[in-house]
Amino acid sequence: MDANLENLLRAYSAGEIDQLALQELTGLWCGDILLALAERGLPLPRVDSTLDFNPAQCALCGEIFA
Fold first, then answer.
1. CA-to-CA distance for 61 and 36, rounded, in angstroms?
2. How many whole angstroms separate alpha carbon 51 and alpha carbon 32?
3. Secondary structure class of 33 (helix, strand, coil)
4. What pLDDT is stored for residue 22 in this prediction?
5. Residues with Cβ < 8 Å from 46, sequence gap 6 or more?
6. CA of 39: how far to CAs of 53, 56, 64, 65, in Å?
7. Looking at residues 21-41, what average pLDDT do you find?
């Protein structure tokens, strides 16, 4: 399971699988996942918001949080 966990965490960190899939496959919860990533020096996955929001929404978000 350890090698499989490593592979799953790397896949999650790279954005290849989502959090729900990782939780189902490992039994880890959000805090456990964050701790496991930190222990291995893996970055949090990046979310591409352009898949969920149109350009106007992205621009507004950029103005608010810039």
1. 30
2. 27
3. helix
4. 95
5. 15
6. 33, 38, 33, 30
7. 95
3-state secondary structure of 30: helix
Q: Is the pLDDT of residue 49 over 90?
A: no
d(CA 31, CA 12): 14
Using DSSP's 3-state secondary structure scheme, residue 49 falls into helix
User: For the chain, what's the residue count?
Assistant: 66
CB atoms near residue 8 (< 10 Å): 20
> Can you list the alpha helix ranges (DSSP code H) found in 1-66?
2-13, 19-26, 30-40, 55-65
Say if residues 5 and 33 touch (Cβ distance below 8 Å). Answer: no
Tell me the pLDDT tens digit for each residue of 3-27: 899 999 999 999 999 999 999 999 9
Q: Is the confidence at residue 1, as pLDDT, over 70? A: no
